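Below: protein 1.
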Amino acid sequence: MVFKLVEIKHKPCIKLSQNVEKMTIPSSKNAYRFYGSNGRAILDFMQPSGVPPPEKGEKYLCRHPTDMSKRAYVTPSRVVPLLHTIWKEGVAMETVPWQSAKDRVLEQLGELREDMTRLHNPTDYKVSVSEALFDQTQTLWLDAAPVKEIS
């Protein structure tokens, strides 16, 4: 299991890295899977907690978490929340039988496009963030990143 700190006392924080892919996406957030009209998963979409969940048929600007040039509008035909509370304050809120978890994984793999599940040179599955989460990440990064001094 990997733990990445994203908030301290409800205040968003960020971990910087020389490898931008290892940078944390700050803040408590919710994640949703967007599906196209063909029933296949398009991408996973993250937005800050407390924001109303995305709705099918609405258009959303989906941003790459770190690359400001990569963005697209997506109008999902179905939206599925991905995060469910399993543990809270050290107490199991729900137990998931092994077979149910396995069946869920196989079902979700079947929802991916074939080019994403092929053995050779598979296409990456996209994870996007909302405009608000992108802006928050950029602001925190600029505040936390050291500024070089040239003399």
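Below: protein 2.
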Amino acid sequence: PSAPTPAAQTDLGEPTPASEEVTEENLGPSLTSRDWKVRAQCYELLHQLLAKRLERNKNARGKIDADSILDNLDSSVAAMAEDTNVGALDKALGFLFLYADACRKAGDPEQAASMARSLVKKNALSSRPSTL
């Protein structure tokens, strides 16, 4: 008899794919997906979109309107730092570092405080080797 297949793998030992493919069209609703792999894709796509914006205009650093990338993005960033899955959280932190450097609202004292509270009160600063 064969051993049971782990829940996180297919029969071929491949990682289980995300339940959906994230695109710019479904990015907003996908940010709150229950599937951590979908959320991780969202954070990666946001990082790519913001990085492309910076590549096109090097002088835009600290001046980009995040809501021009995704509606209400500024109001969503603090929650990203509270992701409970370490894989998704790593992708979120990568995006958040770029957001802090590139986006205008990140320098707002209330926004910065909100992001800092989220980083401290939840999972980002816990003792997980892959996030430190």
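The first helix runs from residue 27 to 30.
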